[in-house]
Amino acid sequence: MRLIGIDLGGTKVQGALVEDGEVVADAKLATPKGVDQVVAAVVECVGRLGGAPSVDGIGIGAAGVVDAATGDLVRAPNLGGFDGRVPLLTLLTKALELPASTSLVLDNDVNAAVVAEHRLGAGRGFGDVLGVWVGTGVGGGLVLDGQLRRGPAGGAGEIGHVGVALDDGRPCGCGLIGHLEAYAGRSAMEAEARRRHAAGTPTRLVELAGTKRMKSSVFAKAVDAGDMVALALLDDAVRALGVAVASAATLLDLEVVVVGGGLPGKLGPRFVGRIEQAVRTRLFLRSSTLSVVPATLGDLAGAIGAAVLAA
């Protein structure tokens, strides 16, 4: 079976061509702003991988809450121009000019990545897995009893929008206050770094990024240079992740939490180890055998998972 998986994130559109369970080609584009532009980017990425007529199915993992009944993207604060409900599945079905033999599936991007890690990666062999992806924002996916859980509104696992601070906390990109994403999402961390820089605190983060987006590699370089703002922001991120993950682990009595995304990928296992320690100090059940581990499938996890969902 030949399948295309697309990971539609806030920074990049990552695609993979999967044949009989193996990745045989991949493609990547920067994520543009605007609904029409994003649809066009997905079509281009599929085209680079051979096009819709060449495969049996296409899976799309999109950064946002997906209404499984309609294929609409309900909330997608990290996709520029997606300000309300967007009928993304309908738009992509039309734009891709799908043959009758090719199926199209739309799901949340981290749901897709967690499915991949559960089936093939760091969560393999576990019945219950929480995935936490730290990138442009913070996304989550939840597998319980071996099954992906979406919830009646499509929001199961959305740990990035769990509250970690009271009403005087940082503003989140979704419009609410004190969410995990406001402390650990790269866009929010960039906004805070630029705010501090404008207030007179020098930081290598701004020097390295200039007017461009602060990518995960910029944070890694600033940390290596001992930049105090970068270190402080990451300390805040670790604490916030500890609060949110410990709460989820206590509620669900989880076996394993898989941490992936651009920021952990660049900062390495030590960053994930810090998160595990922050979680352990907050667990209600000290006897818990919970493990917090790095994702193993890298940048292609979301695309591979989307292909798995298409199958």
The pLDDT mean sits at 94
Strand content: 15-25%
Order of helices and strands: EEEHEEEHEHEEEHHHHHEHHEH
| CATH architecture label of the largest domain | 2-Layer Sandwich
Describe the strand arrangement of the main beta sheet, using strand numbers. Answer: 3-2-1-4-7
Gap between N and C termini: 8 Å
Uncertain segments are none
**CATH T-level topology of the largest domain:** Nucleotidyltransferase, domain 5
CATH class term of the largest domain: Alpha Beta
Whole-number total of structural domains:
2
Number of strands: 12
Count of separate DSSP helical elements: 11
The CATH H-level homologous superfamily of the largest domain: ATPase, nucleotide binding domain
- Portion in helices: 25-40%
**Estimated radius of gyration:** 19 Å
SS-based class: alpha/beta
What can be said about the biggest beta sheet?
Answer: 5 strands, mixed
Could you say which overall geometry the principal axes of the C-alpha atoms support? Answer: globular
What would your notes on this structure say?
This protein is of the alpha/beta class. The protein has two domains: 2-113 and 300-310, ATPase, nucleotide binding domain (Nucleotidyltransferase, domain 5, 2-Layer Sandwich), CATH 3.30.420.40; 125-295, Nucleotidyltransferase, domain 5, CATH 3.30.420. It is built from eleven helices and twelve strands. The strands form three sheets. A five-stranded mixed sheet has the order 3-2-1-4-7.
Quick structural gist:
The protein is α/β, with parallel strands linked by helices and 311 residues long. It has eleven helices and twelve strands.
